[in-house]
Automatic annotation (TrEMBL):
<keyword id="KW-0804">Transcription</keyword>
<comment type="function">
    <text>Component of the Mediator complex, a coactivator involved in the regulated transcription of nearly all RNA polymerase II-dependent genes. Mediator functions as a bridge to convey information from gene-specific regulatory proteins to the basal RNA polymerase II transcription machinery. Mediator is recruited to promoters by direct interactions with regulatory proteins and serves as a scaffold for the assembly of a functional preinitiation complex with RNA polymerase II and the general transcription factors.</text>
</comment>
<dbReference type="GO" id="GO:0006357">
    <property type="term" value="P:regulation of transcription by RNA polymerase II"/>
</dbReference>
<protein>
    <recommendedName>
        <fullName>Mediator of RNA polymerase II transcription subunit 20</fullName>
    </recommendedName>
</protein>
<feature type="region of interest" description="Disordered">
    <location>
        <begin position="87"/>
        <end position="114"/>
    </location>
</feature>
<dbReference type="Pfam" id="PF08612">
    <property type="entry name" value="Med20"/>
</dbReference>
<dbReference type="GO" id="GO:0016592">
    <property type="term" value="C:mediator complex"/>
</dbReference>
<comment type="subunit">
    <text>Component of the Mediator complex.</text>
</comment>
<dbReference type="GO" id="GO:0003712">
    <property type="term" value="F:transcription coregulator activity"/>
</dbReference>
<feature type="region of interest" description="Disordered">
    <location>
        <begin position="45"/>
        <end position="68"/>
    </location>
</feature>
<feature type="compositionally biased region" description="Polar residues">
    <location>
        <begin position="87"/>
        <end position="109"/>
    </location>
</feature>
<keyword id="KW-0805">Transcription regulation</keyword>
<keyword id="KW-0539">Nucleus</keyword>
<comment type="similarity">
    <text>Belongs to the Mediator complex subunit 20 family.</text>
</comment>
<keyword id="KW-0010">Activator</keyword>
<dbReference type="InterPro" id="IPR013921">
    <property type="entry name" value="Mediator_Med20"/>
</dbReference>
């Protein structure tokens, strides 16, 4: 079962080009074989504060709960499905044993409260769901952002599949804002829990071989249905913070 890691590198200014930086380093250090383009679309909704119930008991009783997020994600390499997740309130992200302290691991991987994930047919059905959220559920969920990956390129490098693309915020047409670059590193052929535990350092080592600093890192979660771990980590890396 493949295991993936995601690396998001934000824009540092008007003249920065993190996507081109990653591609240049990838070509220089690993001599990758191109496998074709890829795309991503992501919509994020945040639960309106008035609809978030307070904790019923425990040490956090009476404290305002953290926000919940509903996310709609379409990945070209996960076609023909569109994925919908609802992320429940979590404790702050923690670092999995064996990974660098600077890594940002999804809180659901350590809190025992995984996100709910459902999938719907891509195309008309997913568009109808989006329109339903916008027209009927506005009082419950507020649209916070729309993200797309443009100029996505995929490669093979030995036992790795690598996808690199530019993340842009905004709807179709003009007026989109460049947010940075995302790189998915997929290590193929991983079998069993022990090998999965070793995947974090292996994927991190691949990324660090590029010599790029300042990226936010998110790793997948073992023991899930095929493809679900990748969906959950994409939703984590694309989610608005705070």
């Amino acid at each position: 079962m493949p295991v993936t890691g995601l690396f998001f590198l934000p824009n540092q200014g008007a003249d920065s080009s993190p996507t081109q930086d990653i591609l240049a380093r990838l070509t220089t250090h690993y001599n990758p074989s191109p496998t074709g383009p890829w795309t991503l679309s992501h919509r994020l909704f945040r639960e309106t504060p008035s609809n978030a119930p307070p904790p019923a008991n425990g040490p956090d009783r009476g404290k305002p709960p953290g926000p919940r997020y509903l996310q709609i994600l379409t990945l070209s390499h996960h076609a023909p499905r569109t994925h919908v997740t609802i992320t429940t309130t979590h404790a702050p992200s923690q670092t999995r044993a064996g990974t660098p302290a600077s890594s940002n691991i999804s809180a659901e991987a350590t809190s025992g409260e995984p996100a709910t994930v459902i999938s719907i047919p891509q195309g008309a059905s997913s568009e109808e769901f989006i329109q339903l959220m916008m027209s009927k559920f506005g009082p419950l969920w507020q649209l916070r952002q729309i993200l797309n990956v443009v100029n996505g390129q995929a490669f093979e490098v030995g036992d790795f599949r690598v996808r690199v693309g530019e993340v842009r915020q905004g709807g179709g047409g003009g007026g989109q804002i460049g947010k940075g670059a995302v790189c998915e590193v997929e290590w193929v052929g991983v079998e069993g829990e022990e090998e999965w535990e070793a995947a974090g350092p292996v994927i991190t080592g691949f990324w660090e071989g590029l010599g790029i600093r300042g990226a936010r890192r998110v790793f997948g979660v073992p023991g899930l249905a095929k493809g679900e771990g990748s969906v959950r980590q994409w939703c984590e890396v694309l989610r608005v913070r705070g």
